[in-house]
Amino acid sequence: MPKGPSTHLEIASGGSAHGWRAVFPPAQWLATYRPHWLAHDAVSGVTLAAYGIPVSLAYASLAGLPPQYGIYCYLVGGLFYALFGSSRQLAIGPTSAISLLVGVTVADMAGGDTVRWASIAALTALLVGGMCVLAWLLRLSSLVNFISETILLGFKAGAALTIALTQLPKLFGVKGGGENFFERIFVLAGQIPDTNLAVLAFGLTAIAVLLLGEKFLPGRPVALFVVVISVVLLSVTQLSGLGFTSSTSTPCVS
C-alpha cells in the first residue's frame, strides 16, 4: 500500500508545517500527491460513504430532524474536513449521544414546530462549531484528560439505553411517547398489544441481515445495502400500506 500524502509530506518537508500552511493542510501535500494514489483514495471514499450514509440518516432522526438533513451535513462536513483536517485516520463527526441530546433539548424549545426545530438545531450546530474554533485557538483539548473514565462509561451506558428506547416504538410500529426514560417504558409496554406485525417482521429481518453481514461479510457495506433495499421495497411494493410511516414528517424525539 502506498504511503499517504501526509506521510510523504513529513519526509519532504522534514517536519511540521507552520503559518497558514498548518491551517490549510492541502497546501502541504497537494504538490507531492501522486496520481497512482487516486485509486486507493477512491476506494476509501466509497467505503466511508457506505458507512456514513446510513449513520447520517440515523443521527438526523435521533436529533428529531428529517433524515436527509444528515446527508447534507455529512457532505458539507466531509468537504471542510478534507480542506482543513490534518489526519488520515481520525474519525470526526456527531455521535448518537450528541444527536439525542440535541433532539431532547430542542424539543422543548421548538414546541412541535418542525421549521423552528430545524432552525434551532442549525443554530446549535453553528454555536458548537464556533466554540470548537475557540477551543482550538486557546488549546483547550487537554481539559478532556480531567474527565474520568467512570463518568464517560456511565454516560455511554445511559445514552445507549435512552437511544434504544426511542427506537423501540418504531420497531414495534407503535406511536410511543413519554417525557422521560421510565415514562416511555410504561407507555411502550401499554402499546405492545397494538404492535404492527408487518413492521416488526420487517425490522427484525433488517436486524438479522445486519448481524449476519457483520459475521460473514466483515468490512462490507451491509448497512448501506439494508438501507437501499428497504427504500426500494417500500417504494415499489405495497408494504407502505401496511403501517410504515415516514420519519420526515414529525420529530422523533419526544
Cα(first) to Cα(last) distance is 48 Å
Rounded to an integer, what's the Rg over CA atoms?
22 Å
**Class by SSE composition:** mainly alpha
Shape: globular
Number of DSSP-assigned strands? 0
Query: How would a crystallographer describe the biggest sheet?
Result: none
Estimate the mean pLDDT confidence: 79
List segments where confidence is low: pLDDT < 50 over at least 5 consecutive residues.
1-15, 246-254
Total helices: the number is: 11
Overall number of structural domains:
1
Topology pattern, helix = H, strand = E: HHHHHHHHHHH
Strand content: under 5%
Share of residues in helices: 55-70%
Report on the structure:
This protein is mainly α. The protein has one domain. The protein has helices at residues 5-13, 20-23, 26-29, 38-62, 67-84, 96-110, 114-137, 149-172, 181-191, 197-216, 222-236. The chain is globular, with a radius of gyration of 22 Å.
Using brief descriptors, characterize the structure shown:
disordered C terminus
Set down the secondary structure blueprint.
Blueprint (H helix, E strand, L loop, with lengths): L4 H9 L6 H4 L2 H4 L8 H25 L4 H18 L11 H15 L3 H24 L11 H24 L8 H11 L5 H20 L5 H15 L18
Short description:
It contains eleven helices and no strands. The chain has 254 residues and is mainly α. Mean pLDDT is 79; it is low at 1-15 and 246-254.
